[in-house]
Description:
By secondary structure, this protein is mostly helical. It is built from seven helices and no strands. It is 58% helix and 0% strand.
Amino acid sequence: IIDHDKDLLAYAQMLPLIAQGFRIYSPAVSETLSHVVVRHPDPLDDNEWQIVELIARGLSTLKIKEETHFSESTIADKISRMARRLNALGHITVNTEDRRPIPNRYRDALSRFYKENAVRYGRHRRP
């Protein structure tokens, strides 16, 4: 039995991925392709992905500190290093004229990076 509403919902959920340039294949083809597809190296480590996800969720530096148990200076340092690395790799564009403190300076770019790339790197968490 085919549930057309369920299929339409599944297709609708794929549209943002297709818009990002992903190709969608049937499960049978996906199993074969997974062995030959080359993955891009992950630009962030686990702790950096955790911080960038919390930034994308809109958490303040204080809330990120509570969630991660990192000090504020460690968070600022990680954010600065992530922004420089992602800028060098062409994933984000850093506004060098922005003079806000580091956690806020890169917040928008890192949030956008997470939303655009979390699925690509297998880091997306379902709500």
